[in-house]
């Protein structure tokens, strides 16, 4: 069980590095977004952050609304995607009437709000027959150099969160493999957008990044210029009954 103070601090940490977040976090694969959205149209991107998932939803020509509590993350989303309807709100208090959406989807965020209150809100704003989906990008630790890096980072993965609520049917899961083109420095910049890195003391952060940089320069896979960072996207979805 995580320390609740640290959990709250981490959940609210992302805005301090919003520009780097938008620049260095990976996208979501089109197939994963298609798997959640199906042939629906009105989509809420919940906890939209700087709009990484919103961007792909828009490319699909969907009617997209973004909800994000953090002012700095939302400001970056509005700067990058000025045409999106973006509102301040949380998963526990979604600022829309009942049955407003066909799909509620959330990227890299369900673990921050997997609570009965959030699922009651999510199913309230979904119309019956609509879909709730959550996606996560993970570094693919089945690849040895990635496993070595993850060990140095030392952060516990947030595990599999399954949406369970009386207004949701049984959840289904899927995974996809893709990658992000990186260099040592842009890989470090990606890692620097993770909540743990944003909440630790400066001295600890500097020491950890020194170790990570040394490691990446020591590996044949990552020290020759550009390389592919292998990513697994994991998805879970359930239909609003
Ligand atoms: C790791 S970021 C993911 C942002 C974006 N969805 C993406 O895929 O890049 C997590 C986001 O969840 C938001 N968040 C944290 N707790 C939340 C809550 N209870 N309700 C809604 N959003 C929340 C944070 O402000 C942050 O923007």
TrEMBL record:
Molecular-function GO terms, alphabetical: methyltransferase activity
Keyword vocabulary terms for this entry: Methyltransferase, Transferase
UniProt-listed CDD domains: AdoMet_MTases
Listed GO biological process terms: methylation
InterPro entries on file: Diverse_substrate_MTase, Methyltransf_11, SAM-dependent_MTases_sf
Source organism, top-level taxon: Bacteria
Domain (Methyltransferase type): residue spans on this chain: 44-132
Family: Belongs to the methyltransferase superfamily.
Name of this protein: Methyltransferase domain-containing protein
């Amino acid at each position: 069980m995580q320390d609740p103070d640290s959990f709250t601090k981490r959940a609210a940490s992302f805005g301090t590095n919003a520009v780097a977040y938008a620049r260095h976090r990976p996208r979501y694969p089109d197939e994963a977004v298609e798997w959640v959205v199906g042939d629906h149209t009105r989509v809420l991107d919940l906890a939209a952050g700087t709009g990484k998932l919103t961007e792909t939803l828009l490319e699909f020509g969907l009617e997209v609304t973004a909800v994000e509590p953090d002012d700095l993350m939302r400001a970056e989303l509005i700067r990058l995607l000025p045409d999106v309807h973006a509102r301040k709100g949380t998963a526990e208090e979604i600022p829309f009437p009942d049955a407003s959406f066909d799909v509620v989807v959330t990227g890299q965020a369900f673990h921050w709000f997997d609570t009965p209150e959030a699922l009651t809100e999510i199913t309230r704003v979904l119309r019956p027959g609509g879909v709730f989906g959550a996606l996560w990008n993970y570094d693919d630790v089945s690849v040895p150099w990635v496993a070595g890096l993850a060990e140095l980072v030392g952060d516990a993965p947030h595990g599999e969160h399954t949406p369970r609520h009386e207004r949701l049917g049984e959840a289904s899961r899927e995974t996809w493999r893709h990658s992000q083109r990186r260099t040592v420095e842009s890989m470090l910049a990606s890692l620097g957008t993770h909540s743990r890195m944003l909440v630790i003391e400066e001295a600890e952060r500097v020491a950890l990044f020194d170790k990570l940089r040394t490691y990446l320069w020591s590996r044949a896979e990552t020290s020759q210029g550009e390389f592919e960072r292998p990513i697994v996207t994991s998805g879970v979805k359930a239909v609003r009954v």
